[in-house]
């Protein structure tokens, strides 16, 4: 931290997700000036993004303006801009819409993007789920798929309506479960020409089981729960091709199909310009104190960091990891710890949860493993507890109660007649 | 209604707004088959659309899927499609995405669009407010205007941030008031580089007073209330030019400025192909029974109809007018009234309301005229009462209470980093 004692050091944080925001909040009372840069104007509660994509929640329920989140903090300013690159030589961050921004200390928390295993051309037909914009695109596609199936059923022979979700991790499982619930309970009753047994939801996983981060017993409980809800779970199956008209699953070409990509992530391209060792997912191999090799005042946290845990495996891309990392880095900066003085970052793993549907979830808290209603209630409490504002907590809770009672989610909106997507959508 | 008694007559309704939905619901128990066509999938509570545009409410709070709205009605089917034309000769409606749809009876309720007095090129720089998509575009522009002003204030000399609202009718007044409130109470506190006295809100009206539909006393009360909130009201002033860089108001060119168009409406272009007499706003001059001249089984209702009231002036484009017309037409059809048997449509005018801000509104109920808190409370009750679903009533009410208490509206979201609009936006 190249600073003399009279001028407060300039801390630049790139990304207002869980890690970046936790770092900014951790520096609340430090004698530093913090600039928080994000390409959107809001913090997003990503763990519930799949509910926006499946029309159960509205964007405003799970996002909150970043400026409002740090309004009470005198030493933080927010800049909405896109970061193009980090210039390590001059210690500046290059942004799209203004002069370069100098820093003494940099915290990079730019997150990750969907990864298509070298097939970026699939992205147009199999959108991923990282931003509100992604979720709204996906929502409109899913709703339009029902409208188009209804049209086909009225004017031609009925064809099954197929959704293919690629990737059996928590996001894929949550999307499949939510889609099955919304499809059966909210959508099909609105489309007299469609029957529920004509709607197919395929969850495709390349590995031996879904939710590989959980214990095998919970994986199979989740599989059974999904199957009971009408989801077809395909294991050890590869997606070989995604086109506008359909998708090649194993050696079957399924057409038409709406494809959602939840199979893998790649760190933000920002990491590539740093000149640091990266792993195969583009994540920076950070040191024990989360700094990059050779520069103790540039930190990388969250999904863009490859940070090894006790068993030498990289920590998962979860909100608690990013938040703990943000708080750790804030403390290092607050105490102006020289590299030699820093205790290594240790992730306090409080367990993991994945929800499948109403009253269905799996939980793994250390030695404790359980599923069903207790896991689901815990999941609800944890997620509402972590939502950033009281207002959003209230709105999400009331929306869930409403949905639980009525099965009529209100967010099923196609904004502009679907003209943007009806031509490019998977189901013509 | 060219039908024999064994086949139920086919009623086609174009437009799922207040008029079209009321007509569909009015035909609930009639022995007819109803097809409701809309280019979106939702009914929109347009009177609160300005609150979505000013980030006070979310889209999902004021819209509701049409299919869900008529789910309980066995004789109604919903089609999401765009109606291109009405073929009177073959009695069919031409749609974009399917074969033509035949009808025995047609109810046209396609609404209106912003009108630019022959300057359609202004539309790109001065968006109007008719659809959810419009409201989201407007919201993103307003929020980005603050972000851009903040950027200018950091890197260059501060310039005033100017919003110009064209048109002093209820929509213009409501937008100006809401913008002043959100600007002062929610936005400026989030932008340390901006001062409230550098934000200018201009309400430009060509006529002698704002709210010309109300009594002169209420007009001047509304003017005073707006001025106290920081809005500059310009009367007898024309907007002569709208460009990307700014706007010519009277003989002053204001730059940069974000311009919102609330100055006038034109009926949907669908009316032009009917071969009927239209008024200067493109509205069909309907007969006393709301049918078109020469065809007793084609009706036009709502904003697209020129229907004269007691004083020979056309009825205003208000939700109650459209709803009463929809119910009237449904009754004519239900009773299979021949043209000679029909009593003319009479609008039961229950008064009008316009809101200016928190605890500020004007009301005119027959001889009763009042303003301030009582008018505002009445406005709240009426608007929540008319919202289509219990869920939305609850959400809008809770959102208002939250906003009233905290001044932190949660819908201030820019979805995709504003990349779509930052180039075309009014404030570069």
Automatic annotation (TrEMBL), chains A, B:
Location of the External alternative NADH-ubiquinone oxidoreductase-like C-terminal domain: 350-405
UniProt keyword Transmembrane helix present: yes
Catalytic activity line of the entry: a quinone + NADH + H(+) = a quinol + NAD(+)
Listed name of the protein: NADH:ubiquinone reductase (non-electrogenic)
TM region positions: 373-390
EC primary class: oxidoreductase
EC number assigned by the record: 1.6.5.9
Lineage: Bacteria, Pseudomonadati, Nitrospirota, Nitrospiria, Nitrospirales
Gene Ontology molecular-function annotations: NADH dehydrogenase (quinone) (non-electrogenic) activity
Lineage top rank: taxon: Bacteria
Organism: Nitrospira tepida
Pfam (any one): Pyr_redox_2
Gene3D superfamilies xref list: 3.50.50.100
Family: Belongs to the NADH dehydrogenase family.
FAD/NAD(P)-binding domain span: 10-326
Keywords: FAD, Flavoprotein, Membrane, NAD, Oxidoreductase, Transit peptide, Transmembrane, Transmembrane helix
The keyword Nucleotide-binding appears for this protein: no
